[in-house]
Amino acid sequence: MCLTENYGALVELNCETDFVARNEKFIELVSNLASIAHQERCISIDELKNAKYESISTVQEAIMNGTSVLGEKLELSKLCYLETKDGVVAGYVHGDVRGLGKTGALVALQSPGDKAKLQEIGKQIAMHIVAMKPEALSIDDLDQMKLKNERSIIEEQVRSLNKPEEVAKKIVDGRMAKYYEEVVLLEQKFIKDDK
Fold first, then answer.
1. Which of 8, 60, 70, 151 could form a disulfide with 89, with the two C-beta atoms 3.0–4.6 Å apart?
2. Are β-strands 87-94 and 103-110 bridged in parallel, bridged antiparallel, or unpaired?
3. Shortest CA distance to 65 belongs to which of 13, 18, 2?
4. CA quadruple 152, 158, 163, 168: dihedral positive or negative?
5. Coil/strand/helix, residue 190
């Protein structure tokens, strides 16, 4: 992860073992990739792969070289770039060692408010996202096929209870609300204050 006040980049470079993940050369490579994604404001993996790496090669060539040197397949699998004009970009990486870890999140907050307070709030929201792993920001953002499937499973379970239609509908609605609390960020209880 690499951040400045109003923009940031988060990259995921996968390896096959923890041994390589703790290797200094791997850590340096990941750190460099995050810096390049940040400096070049890369918005796609292809854009990052084609970016210049230490003025001698591309990021893709550096990853292939890392595979050769470390003896494991390395794969650039994710890139997140966020930018805001009037606000902050904050982030959190779990197991943070020099901005690196196993999982992370970036959050952009659009507000003219106090930047330091916004950074702290953004970091807490990013921490919540890493801990709770929401699938969508709002109910409207959920994958409609997955949502329809989940509702049919719940309806089938409730049908087997042989309840009156009005009661069954309330049970389905209650279980769907519980499902939303599990997978929708705006429906989740905040981990720092679970009210």
1. 8
2. antiparallel
3. 13
4. negative
5. strand
CA angle 93, 61, 83 (to 5 degrees): 40
- Kindly report the pTM of this predicted structure: 0.83
pLDDT at 5: 83
Say how far apart CA 90 and CA 25 lie, in whole Å.
27
DSSP 99: T
Is 109 in contact with 118 (CB distance < 8 Å)?
A: yes
Exposed, middle or buried: residue 47 (CB in 10 Å: 0-12, 13-18, 19+)? middle
Task: Show the tokens assigned to 71.
Answer: 């003896």
Structure-block tokens of residue 44: 């796609």
Name every residue whose Cβ is closer than 8 Å to that of residue 15 and which is 6 or more positions away in sequence: 21, 26, 70, 72, 73, 74
Mean pLDDT, 10 residues at a time, over the chain (195 residues)? Answer: 92 94 92 95 96 88 95 96 94 79 92 93 96 95 94 93 90 95 94 74
Cα Rg of the chain, angstroms: 21
For 41: left if phi > 0, alpha if psi spans -120 to 50, otherwise beta; the answer is left
Q: Which run of H or of E encompasses 106?
A: strand 103-110
DSSP 3-state assignment of 61?
Answer: helix
